[in-house]
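> forwarded from #structure-qc
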C-alpha cells in the first residue's frame, strides 16, 4: 500500500480548499496510491460521493473529519476560553466509529456551534470508540502547546488524548512545511514527546489543493471567503505552506530522518476497514395493527379505496387486475411501508383542511396511489403507466412529489415529526456553487481588479455556459481573454473555482424520514434561516445523491402559493355564505372552466401560464381534459 494521505480537504471545506473529491481521487490514482482519506472540517458533506467513487477506482476510502475541540462545547459567553479551539483529525476505523463520528459532528454543529462547530473532550470520550485521532496541524492543542514552549503541558495533553482514544488510536501529526520555522519547532517537539511517551508519529500534508501552482488560487479563495483583497497583509493566508497533494517519493524524502512517520500512514490505513452500506433501503416503520404486515394493510386500504373511488359501481376485472399487479410489484420490491407513510400524511393533511395537489409526475400512474388518496386522478381512465413510477426491472426508491398550500406545509411536517419522532425527521441540505459569472466577479474583487472590467468580462459569458465553454465557443470572449495579462489572470483563477461549493442551504422541499434517529445515518447541522432549519449533511442532488445511495427515504413536501390561493378562496366562500365545492370531486366537463383555458386566462396555472402555452391554448381551444394532457 505504501504512504497514504490522511489529512485531506476537498471543496466541501467551504471556500477553503480547491479539489473536488473526484479531483483528489484522480490525483491519488495518478500517483499510484491505493488508499486515501477525506477529512473536511466539521462535515461529511462529500463522504458518500468520495466513498463510492473511490471504490469504483480501486482506491480504499478512509472517511474522517477535522474537528474543533473547545474546553466546553456548550459554553458561549464570549470569553477567551470560549473562543479558543484546537484542531483534531478523526478517522473512521469501523461501523462503530462511523456512527460515533456522525454523532460528534451533529452535536458539535447543533449544540456546540459558536463561530465554528465545536466539540470537547467530554464528548470525544463518550464517542471515541472506533476512531483514530491525529493531533492536527499547528492549530492542534498538542502542537500549539509545543510551539509555545510548554513541552510538559503538551506531553500531558498528548497522554490525555491517548487515554481518550486508547493506545494505538492516537498519533502525533508532523507536517513537512520545513520552510516555516514554527513547523520545524513543532516537529522537533513532537518527535521528543513521541520518544518520551511512546505515542507514535504520523506524517501528513493537510492537503488543500492538488499542485503547488494552485496555491495562488487557493489564496484567492480564502480572500473571497473572508471578503478581503489578496493584498491585505493582515488577512488569514496559507501561502507559507505547500498544501499540495505530494507524491509518496516527496513525502519519504521530506521525512527521510523519521521513516516511521511515513510507515505509520499505511498502518493506520490498514486499521481503517469501514464498509459504508449503500443500496439498502432504510424505510421507517409505519405503525400497524397487531398481527398485520405492511403488505396486508396496504391491500386493506386499497380494497376500501375501490369502494370509495367507485361508489355503487361494479369493480371491473381491469381495475382489480391493475390493483393486484401493482400490489405484487410493491410487495416484491419491499415498498409497502413507503405507500403507507405517504398516504398517512397526505390524508391527514386533507382531513385537516390543508389543500393538497391532485398528484403529478410519475406517481400519477399508480392505481394504488389513487386508491389510497395519495393522488386524485384515475390512471386507468387516462392510460397512465405504473412502470414509469415503479419498475420491477429497474428497482429504485419511489419518488412522490406532494404539493401542499405553502402556508400549511409546516403543519404537515410537524405532523410527520410527531408521528415518527422529531429526531427521525430532517430536511435536506443543498449547496450553492460558484457559477461562471459569479466566479469572475468574486475573483475580481479579491484581486482588486476594477469592477468595470470584472463586470464586462462576466457579461461576455452567455447564461448557462461555463467559462471554458465561453472560451471555446465565444470568439469575442476568447479575444478579450487574450487582450491582457490582467484579464487572463482573472479568468484563469475563476476557471479553477467555478463549480466549487460556496455555501450550504436547505433544499426547497426535500425531507428524510428514518427508521432510527437521523444521526444513525447522516450528520446534522443548521443552515441560515432559524432554529428549525436542521438539515442532513448528505445532499440529494442529481450529482451526489448521497441520501438515496445510503437508502434513506426522501420525500418532497412542496409548498405552493397557488394551493394557498385556492385554500383562501374556499375559506372566503364559506365566510360569505356561498356553497363551498369539494375540490376532490370537481367535474371534469365544466364548460366555463374550458372557456377560461380557451381564452388563455391561465396566469398562475401550472405549465399553462407562459406566453407560448397561452398562444397554443387559443389555437387548440380545449373542450375536454384529454386535450391538455401529455
Amino acid at each position: 500500500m505504501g504512504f497514504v494521505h490522511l489529512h485531506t480537504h476537498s471543496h466541501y471545506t467551504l471556500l477553503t480548499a480547491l479539489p473536488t473529491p473526484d479531483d483528489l481521487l484522480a490525483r491519488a490514482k495518478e500517483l499510484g496510491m491505493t488508499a486515501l482519506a477525506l477529512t473536511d472540517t466539521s462535515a461529511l458533506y462529500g463522504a458518500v460521493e468520495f466513498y463510492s467513487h473511490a471504490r469504483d477506482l480501486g482506491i480504499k476510502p478512509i472517511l474522517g473529519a477535522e474537528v474543533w475541540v473547545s474546553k466546553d462545547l456548550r459554553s458561549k459567553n464570549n470569553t477567551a476560553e470560549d473562543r479558543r479551539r484546537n484542531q483534531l483529525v478523526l478517522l473512521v476505523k469501523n461501523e462503530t466509529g462511523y456512527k460515533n463520528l456522525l454523532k460528534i459532528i451533529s452535536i458539535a454543529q447543533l449544540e456546540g456551534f459558536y463561530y465554528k462547530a465545536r466539540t470537547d473532550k467530554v464528548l470525544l470520550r463518550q464517542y471515541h470508540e472506533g476512531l483514530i485521532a491525529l493531533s492536527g496541524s499547528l492549530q492542534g492543542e498538542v502542537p500549539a502547546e509545543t510551539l509555545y514552549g510548554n513541552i510538559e503541558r503538551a506531553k500531558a495533553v498528548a497522554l490525555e488524548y491517548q487515554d481518550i482514544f486508547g493506545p494505538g488510536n492516537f498519533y502525533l501529526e508532523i507536517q513537512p512545511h520545513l520552510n516555516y520555522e514554527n513547523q520545524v519547532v513543532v516537529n522537533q517537539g513532537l518527535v521528543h514527546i513521541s520518544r518520551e511517551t511512546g505515542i507514535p508519529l504520523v506524517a501528513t500534508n493537510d492537503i488543500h489543493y492538488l499542485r503547488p501552482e494552485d496555491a495562488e488560487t487557493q489564496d484567492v479563495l480564502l480572500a473571497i471567503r473572508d471578503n478581503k483583497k489578496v493584498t491585505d497583509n493582515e488577512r488569514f493566508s496559507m501561502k507559507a505552506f505547500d498544501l499540495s497533494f505530494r507524491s509518496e517519493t516527496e513525502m519519504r524524502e521530506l521525512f527521510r530522518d523519521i521513516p516511521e512517520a511515513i510507515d505509520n500512514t499505511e498502518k493506520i490505513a490498514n486499521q481503517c476497514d469501514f464498509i459504508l452500506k449503500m443500496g439498502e433501503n432504510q424505510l421507517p416503520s409505519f405503525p400497524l395493527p397487531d398481527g398485520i404486515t405492511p403488505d396486508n394493510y396496504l391491500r386493506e386500504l386499497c380494497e376500501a379505496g375501490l369502494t370509495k373511488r367507485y361508489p355503487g359501481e361494479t369493480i371491473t376485472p381491469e381495475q382489480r387486475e391493475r390493483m393486484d399487479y401493482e400490489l405484487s410489484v410493491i410487495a416484491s420490491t419491499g415498498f409497502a411501508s413507503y405507500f403507507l407513510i405517504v398516504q398517512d400524511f397526505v390524508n391527514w393533511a386533507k382531513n385537516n383542511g390543508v389543500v393538497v395537489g391532485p398528484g403529478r409526475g410519475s406517481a400519477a400512474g399508480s392505481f394504488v396511489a389513487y386508491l389510497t388518496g395519495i393522488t386524485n386522478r384515475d390512471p386507468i381512465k387516462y392510460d397512465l403507466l405504473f412502470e414509469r413510477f415503479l419498475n420491477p426491472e429497474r428497482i429504485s426508491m419511489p419518488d412522490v412529489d406532494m404539493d401542499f398550500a405553502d402556508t400549511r406545509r409546516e403543519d404537515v411536517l410537524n405532523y410527520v415529526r410527531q408521528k415518527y419522532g422529531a429526531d427521525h425527521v430532517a430536511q435536506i441540505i443543498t449547496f450553492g456553487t460558484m457559477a461562471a459569472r459569479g466566479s469572475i466577479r468574486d475573483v475580481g474583487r479579491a484581486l482588486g481588479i476594477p469592477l468595470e472590467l470584472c463586470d464586462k468580462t462576466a457579461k461576455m459569458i452567455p447564461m448557462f455556459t461555463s467559462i471554458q465553454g465561453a472560451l471555446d465557443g465565444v470568439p469575442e470572449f476568447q479575444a478579450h481573454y487574450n487582450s491582457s495579462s490582467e484579464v487572463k489572470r482573472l479568468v484563469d483563477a475563476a476557471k479553477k473555482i467555478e463549480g466549487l461549493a460556496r455555501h450550504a442551504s436547505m433544499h426547497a422541499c426535500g425531507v428524510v424520514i428514518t427508521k432510527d434517529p437521523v444521526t444513525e445515518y447522516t450528520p446534522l447541522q443548521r443552515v441560515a434561516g432559524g432554529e428549525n432549519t436542521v438539515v442532513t449533511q448528505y445532499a440529494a442532488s442529481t450529482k451526489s445523491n448521497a441520501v438515496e445511495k445510503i437508502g434513506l427515504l426522501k420525500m418532497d413536501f412542496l409548498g405552493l402559493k397557488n394551493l394557498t390561493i385556492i385554500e383562501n378562496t374556499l375559506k372566503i366562500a364559506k365566510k360569505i355564505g356561498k356553497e363551498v365545492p369539494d375540490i376532490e370531486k370537481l367535474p371534469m366537463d365544466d364548460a366555463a372552466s374550458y372557456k377560461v383555458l380557451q381564452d388563455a386566462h391561465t396566469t398562475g396555472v401550472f405549465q399553462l401560464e407562459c406566453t407560448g402555452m397561452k398562444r397554443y391554448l387559443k389555437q387548440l381551444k380545449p373542450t375536454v381534459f384529454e386535450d391538455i394532457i401529455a
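QC bot note: The longest strand covers residues 501-513. The mean pLDDT is 94.
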